[in-house]
Amino acid sequence: MTSRIGVVTFPGTLDDQDALRAARLAGAEPVSLWHRDKDLKQVDAVVLAGGFSYGDYLRAGAISRFSPVMETVVEQARAGMPVLGICNGFQILTEAHLLPGAMLRNDHLHFVCRDQRLRVENADTAWTADYEQGQEISVPLKNMDGRYVADERTLDELEAEGRVAFRYLDVNPNGSLRDIAGITNAAGNVVGLMPHPEHAVEPLVGTGRTDGLGFFTSILKKLVNA
């Protein structure tokens, strides 16, 4: 049976179709999920895609966190369901307290859009198993509120427990503390990052490389072998 990967659409989501396409290219069955519907349609994993849900009012992700679908996503994530938050999805995961820390306005106060080199710091999560620790990849980055922050104790815990999943290379594009581009929860089933792997799954578009496809092949293998 083909694994089903659900992608949630909120008002203002931009990259849901890209994420659905990435899931299909990896060999999964993509399933569209609507923010007002608590039913996850029996999916095996969930992606919270990028965009500007609810116009980023109050704080990026702050309103989406209270959408009906998130009640089920939070419950299932805590029970072990794999969840990936990309850009705005990462912001929603922090607002929902599935991941620690918060996302603030870029330190230079400008929107950034560029191809971004990353180093894989943790290749043992449900979403990164097809990479190798230390591997360098390049995926698009586009955000205004992409600066990851947390208190020193939390940052030290993330480092000590190997929960920094990705780190920026060459340049820190938004002022994120310790060059953190993405993190995971302790169980490794919930991952959030600011760059957009779903835009790097075909040679024709994005970076011209397929460095982001590994997120989706990783979770597919995880589900098949579960």
Automatic annotation (TrEMBL):
InterPro entries attached to this UniProt entry: Class_I_gatase-like, PRibForGlyAmidine_synth_PurQ
Gene3D superfamilies on file: 3.40.50.880
Keywords per UniProt: ATP-binding, Cytoplasm, Glutamine amidotransferase, Hydrolase, Ligase, Nucleotide-binding, Purine biosynthesis
Active site feature: 87 (nucleophile), 196, 198
GO CC terms in record: cytoplasm
Subcellular location(s) of the protein: Cytoplasm
Swiss-Prot/TrEMBL GO biological process terms: 'de novo' IMP biosynthetic process
Record carries keyword ATP-binding: yes
Pathway: Purine metabolism; IMP biosynthesis via de novo pathway; 5-amino-1-(5-phospho-D-ribosyl)imidazole from N(2)-formyl-N(1)-(5-phospho-D-ribosyl)glycinamide: step 1/2
Domain of life: Bacteria
UniProt xrefs under HAMAP family: PurQ
Protein name: Phosphoribosylformylglycinamidine synthase subunit PurQ
Organism: Streptomyces roseolilacinus
